[in-house]
């Protein structure tokens, strides 16, 4: 989640200085390459390259770990399943492939400001203008989504705590209803705040 | 200058404001009243977020019904819950969002953002995700995003309700130092002590309108 929510780490590394578009294109190419790499040895080399990129970026170990941490159980499960249906080398390579792709995507968000990603996206979405869509609004939608992830996550934590305090821990309905109501209320307030900040002028 | 003329507001089945008339020219105006008395509705009228069902509201001599956009450019609004009004993922980006329509060169935008964040002690958090800030810091960020536009009037709906003593003092201090006209809805009575004028709202009407000591005295008696 942290990787999703603007965990930009300020810095002056070459990776920070690359334009957002170049990084995104690089990410796409690398992920394709990861899919095509078969031999585990090649993937091991890829892992070293990714680690080197992280070292160059200077974001630190904590930030790096935060990128892959959310998928650690998924990676473990994937490894287990692959071990059963394939063999050890197959399990190692498919797990490594997923983890490396996520680490690379995380590296892009760690070294790119959301504003730069948005500006790039806005340029890419420029053709949408012909379909009657406003590229600025589309990229704003993306920012609002990024901003809303931690807000709703926090809301979910508060609801869970409130349920626990009242001893209704296991009821999905007692969790979902206040969460949805809270999310809708947040959406309402956000709309009002955008109007107050002059979005519709 | 803000002028309300016999304003009624109906929301759903309820008549939330029932004949409010007032002319606000003082630099510091406070609004107090019981829960549900209509204070937030009154505040929202001032920048056209709520429109009167009858009567009229003019700000800078313009009617909120017809000039809401122009009025919002001159009236900054601070909500109680900063999470709702921070719309960008990181601190500096949220302040920059306010400036986007100014058409300033990038360096100028960055300079103004930096200056504003510095003034309110958030400079070191410029590139942090907004959700890493404490509640009080989030409210300061929301304030920065409003003040960077240098509005002529600032309306605040319970700006200190979610803050601890230190942060609410900080906001109170900021409030005192602001050159513009400020209208503050609050339950934080000490905040209003040195205000120029305080309105007491009850069941959709202004029932007292005086200096802070007199108005708050009336409010206390009413709530007893
Ligand atoms: N959209 C709505 N539809 C119907 N009734 C509403 C709506 N919004 C507010 N109200 C009602 O209007 C009344 C006044 O609301 P308002 O938010 O202005 O009160 P307030 O004085 O700000 O209260 P508080 O101190 O609790 O913030 C309340 O009784 C509320 O239930
Ligand atoms: Mg209110």
Lateral arrangement of strands in the main beta sheet of chain B: 6-7-8-3-9-10
Span between N and C termini of chain A? 33 Å
Helix content of chain B: 25-40%
Biggest beta sheet attributes of chain A: none
* Count of strand segments of chain A: 0
Q: How many DSSP helices of chain A?
A: 9
- Estimate what percentage of residues of chain B fall within beta strands: 25-35%
The residue-averaged pLDDT of chain A reads 82
Low-confidence stretches of chain B: none
The kinds of small molecule bound in this structure are:
adenosine-5'-triphosphate, magnesium ion
Indicate the overall shape of chain A.
globular
Into how many domains do the coordinates of chain A divide?
Answer: 2
Query: Structural class from helices and strands of chain A?
Result: mainly alpha
Strand content of chain A: under 5%
How much is the radius of gyration of chain A in Å?
21 Å
Order of helices and strands of chain B: EEEHEEHEHHHHEHEEEH
What's the multimeric state? heterodimer
Q: What percent of residues of chain A adopt helix (DSSP H or I)?
A: over 70%
What is the tally of beta strands of chain B?
Answer: 10
| Helix-strand makeup class of chain B | alpha/beta
Organism (chain B): Microbispora amethystogenes
Family (chain B): Belongs to the ABC transporter superfamily.
GO molecular function (chain B): ATP binding
InterPro entries (chain B): AAA+_ATPase, ABC_transporter-like_ATP-bd, ABC_transporter-like_CS, ABC_transpr_CbiO/EcfA_su, ECF_ABC_transporter_ATP-bd, P-loop_NTPase
Descriptive notes:
Chain B: InterPro entries: AAA+_ATPase, ABC_transporter-like_ATP-bd, ABC_transporter-like_CS, ABC_transpr_CbiO/EcfA_su, ECF_ABC_transporter_ATP-bd, P-loop_NTPase. Chain B: GO terms for molecular function: ATP binding. Chain B: Belongs to the ABC transporter superfamily. Chain B: It comes from Microbispora amethystogenes. The complex is a heterodimer of chains A (201) and B (224). Chain A is mainly alpha-helical. Chain A has 2 domains: 14-124, no CATH class; 133-196. In chain A, 76% of the residues lie in helices and 0% in strands. Chain A contains 9 helices and no strands. In chain A, helix 4 packs across helix 6 (88-111). Chain B is an alpha/beta fold and 224 residues long. In chain B, 35% of the residues lie in helices and 27% in strands. Chain B has helices at 39-45, 68-74, 82-85, 91-99, 106-119, 135-147, 165-177, 212-223, and strands at residues 2-11, 14-24, 28-33, 54-59, 62-63, 75-78, 153-157, 181-185, 197-202, 205-210. In chain B, strand 9 and strand 10 (205-210) form a beta hairpin. The chains are: A mainly alpha (201), B alpha/beta (224). Chains A and B meet through helix 8 and helix 9 of A and helix 2, helix 3 and helix 4 of B. Residues 39-40, 157 of chain B line the site of magnesium ion. The site of adenosine-5'-triphosphate has 12 residues of chain B, from strand 2 and helix 1.
């Amino acid at each position: 989640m942290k990787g999703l929510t603007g965990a930009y780490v300020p810095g002056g590394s070459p990776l920070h200085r690359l334009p957002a578009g170049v990084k995104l294109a690089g990410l796409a190419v690398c992920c394709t390459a990861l899919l095509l790499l078969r031999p585990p040895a090649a993937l091991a080399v890829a892992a070293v390259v990714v680690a080197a990129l992280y070292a160059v970026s200077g974001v630190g170990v904590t930030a790096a770990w935060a990128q892959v941490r959310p998928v650690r159980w998924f990676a473990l499960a994937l490894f287990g399943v692959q071990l059963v249906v394939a063999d050890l080398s197959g399990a190692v390579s498919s797990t490594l492939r997923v983890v490396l792709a996520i680490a690379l995507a995380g590296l892009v968000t760690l070294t790119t400001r959301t504003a730069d990603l948005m500006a790039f996206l806005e340029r890419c979405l420029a053709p949408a203008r012909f379909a009657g869509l406003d590229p600025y609004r589309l990229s704003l939608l993306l920012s609002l989504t990024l901003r809303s992830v931690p807000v709703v996550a926090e809301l979910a934590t508060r609801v869970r705590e409130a349920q626990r305090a009242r001893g209704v821990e296991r009821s999905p309905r007692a969790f979902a209803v206040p969460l949805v109501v809270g999310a809708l209320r947040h959406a309402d307030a956000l709309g009002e705040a955008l109007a107050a900040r002059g979005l519709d002028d | 200058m803000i002028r309300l003329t016999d304003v009624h507001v109906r929301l759903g089945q309820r008549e939330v404001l029932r004949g409010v008339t007032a002319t606000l020219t003082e630099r510091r105006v406070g609004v107090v009243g019981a829960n549900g008395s209509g204070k937030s509705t009154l505040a929202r009228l001032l920048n056209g977020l709520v429109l009167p069902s009858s009567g009229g509201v003019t700000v800078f001599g313009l009617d909120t019904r017809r000039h809401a956009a122009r009025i919002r450019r001159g009236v900054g609004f601070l909500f109680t819950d900063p999470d709702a009004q921070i719309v960008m993922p990181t601190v500096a980006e949220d302040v920059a969002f306010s400036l986007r329509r100014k058409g300033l060169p990038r360096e100028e935008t960055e300079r103004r953002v930096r200056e504003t964040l510095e003034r309110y002690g958030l400079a070191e958090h410029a590139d942090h995700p907004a959700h890493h800030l404490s509640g009080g810091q989030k409210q300061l960020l929301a304030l920065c995003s409003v003040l960077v536009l240098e509005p002529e009037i600032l309306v605040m709906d319970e700006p200190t309700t979610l803050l601890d003593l230190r942060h609410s003092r900080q906001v109170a201090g900021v409030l005192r130092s602001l050159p513009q006209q400020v209208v503050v809805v609050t339950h934080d009575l000490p905040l209003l002590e040195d205000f120029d004028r305080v309105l007491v709202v009850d069941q959709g009407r202004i029932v007292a309108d005086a200096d802070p000591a007199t108005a708050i005295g009336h409010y206390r008696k009413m709530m007893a």
